[in-house]
Amino acid sequence: MKKSPCKKGAQKAQIYTTCIRNNLITKDLTFSTNGIKKTAKWEHLIQLYQADSFIPDCKMLPRLTDAHVIPEKLPKMKVRNACQVFSQRVSAIMNFLASKSIIDPGAADTAEIFLFFDKLFDSLNGSFDKVVDGKIFRTSVKKNSIHHQLWMDSLKVLSTMKFVNKNGKAVSIPTIKNWEMTIRGFQTLSKALHIKGIQSLLPRVLNQDSLENLFGGIRSVGCSNPTCSIFMSSYKTLLLNNLVSSHSPGANCEDFTEGCLLTYKNLFSIRQETPEMPLLSCDLPEQVIPNQLDTTQYLRDLTHTFISGYIIKKINKNLLKNCKTCLKLICSNNTSSENYELLQAREYQPSRPSLKYPAPSFGLLVSKIIVNITQCLPSVCHHPKIKSILIDKILSNFNLSILHCPKHDDSIQYKIAECIVNLFLHFRCTEINRILSGKRKIKHNEKDPIKLLANSWYEKHSKKKVKIGKFNQV
Ligand SMILES: [Zn+2]
Predict the structure, then answer these.
(1) Whose C-alpha in 46, 51, 254, 421 is 20 to 30 A from the C-alpha of 473?
(2) 71 CA distance to ligand 1 centroid (A)?
(3) HEC secondary structure over the chain
(4) CA of 383 to the centre of ligand 1 (A)
(5) 266: pLDDT strictly greater than 50
(6) Distance 326 CA to ligand 1 centre (A)
(7) Measuring CA to CA, how many Å separate 412 from each of 50, 202, 301, 318, 453?
(8) Res 27 pLDDT > 50
(9) What positions does the domain Transposable element P transposase-like RNase H C-terminal occupy (predicted)?
């Protein structure tokens, strides 16, 4: 076998993805599929992010923050952020908004390249034998698995890829060549292993993370360039440290942890047994959601429908367990309606739908609850037991008894309400944490007192200096 460039393939694939992203921020990426020339631009992602940010009470892409999208705020070598952008989810929603001309219709090309790298990355990162979460490429490589076709097609597309700078000149970027080399390496390796009788290969194991961690550990207890004997003694030290640390599964330090746990237990139980209700004589002002543009209203309705589907999926898994009568009450048979456009766009394989499509009545109910919660949450979020306050409010304001069959008891109503409340409490906490850490800018017309407080805390504690990086040109 030739010198194998695919060693540590999975890890390299991560780095290449990050490099592609960093180049895409300052340059456009041109490529051809089936003889059609296309252009991907970072600007399209910014448009998508802005359209999403306008929705007042929920997000289509809740994971994206300024640190994923806004060039000045991007941590350049953070692999995870790059991978979250090059994802099926971002690609699907970008494609959908482009098809509706809500963002530049040319964003369809960018969506295509995001999906391209998502698939390619998955195909070099498979760690399961079976398909998990519909990720068909994150599986083991076998003789007739779908990876081989993907790699062949990808090589064709990669050979047409070029980065073009703002002056229209092509810039040569080694990452694209490296991608090709890695894929060819995987092709060679899987063939060679097959000849040796190895039927299945998990690409993720070709990764030197654990080795690097070990050497990092050795250096941290010994010196930076260990000799064989220093290596041995450092290894022994690490082994011993590991055995006495409380994280080690084989460690016998029950007395130790028990002592710690007792104090923690006291801390929590004291607070729980004598809950001192702080005197809260007043609520903060209620928020009125300002009128939105038609497009935002449209996206918001679609996202509410999507969330309703997510809630059905969740309660079905935990409670309904595919009870046909219940699902008939809350799901829709007609999945082609316009209300489901976002759900359809988000399916991994449109031919094999795996998401739940809420019946219009259930969707409307969830949407009303969401509006109700987000309206009152800013004014009462400082109260203790906020979760049960909100659940009680939902149960008394809305009739959830129509949502289940007689076989399932009333506790299901509580669970549905709890599911929605959990989701939106979590969403609110995330939003406020992001404002506190500067990952999200506050909206110019923001009136929510807690968000305003969080913002002024961030402005007081953040470094005043605005960094001027090389990506500021975009
Ligand atoms: Zn039932």
Answers:
(1) 51
(2) 49
(3) CCCCCCCCHHHHHHHHHHHHHHHHHHCEEEEEECCEEEEECHHHHHHHHHHHHCCCCCCCCCCCCHHHHCHHHCCCCCHHHHHHHCCHHHHHHHHHHHHCCCCCCCHHHHHHHHHHHHHHHHHCCCCECCCECCECCCECECCCCCHHHHHHHHHHHHHHCEEECCCCCEECCHHHHHHHHHHHHHHHHHHHHHHCCCCCECHHHCCCHHHHHHHHHHHHHCCCCCCHHHHHHHHHHHHHHHHHCCCCCCCCCHHHHHHHHHHHHHHHHHHHHCCCCCCCCCCCCCCCCCCCCHHHHHHHHHHHHHHHHHHHHHHHHHHHCCCHHHHHHHECCCCCCHHHHHHHHHCCCCCCCCCCCECHHHHHHHHHHHHHHHHHHHHHCCCCCHHHHHHHHHHHHCCCHHHCCCCCCCHHHHHHHHHHHHHHHHHHHHHHHHHHCCCCCCCCCCCCHHHHHHHHHHHHHCCCCCCCCCCCCC
(4) 35
(5) no
(6) 4
(7) 37, 41, 25, 10, 37
(8) yes
(9) 206-236
- Taking the centre of ligand 1 as the mean of its atom positions, its distance from the CA of residue 327, in whole angstroms, is 7
Residue whose token pair is 């994802």 = 87
* Percent of the chain clearing pLDDT 90 (strictly above): 25
285 CA from centroid of ligand 1 (Å): 40
| Distance from residue 233's CA to the centre of ligand 1 (Å) | 63
C-beta of residue 379 within 8 angstroms of C-beta of residue 286:
yes
Please answer whether residues 165 and 26 qualify as being in contact, where contact means their C-beta atoms are separated by less than 8 angstroms. Answer: yes
Measured in Å, residue 399 CA sits from the centre of ligand 1 at 17
Residue 92 has pLDDT above 90, yes or no: yes
Q: What is the CA(390)–ligand 1 centre distance, in A? A: 25
Residue 257 has pLDDT above 50, yes or no: no
Asked if residue 57 has pLDDT above 80, the reply is yes
Q: How far is the CA of 316 from the centre of ligand 1 (A)?
A: 10
CA of 332 to the centre of ligand 1 (A): 16
How remote is the CA of residue 427 from the centroid of ligand 1, in Å?
A: 29
What's the pTM value of the predicted model, to 2 decimals? 0.76
Distance 405 CA to ligand 1 centre (A): 4
Give 320 Cα–ligand 1 centroid separation in angstroms.
6
In our burial notation (b when 16+ CB lie closer than 10 A, e otherwise), range 69-96 reads bbbebbeeeeeebbbbbbbbbbbbbbbb
Q: What is the average pLDDT value for the chain, to the nearest integer?
A: 81
CA of 404 from ligand 1 middle (Å) equals: 6
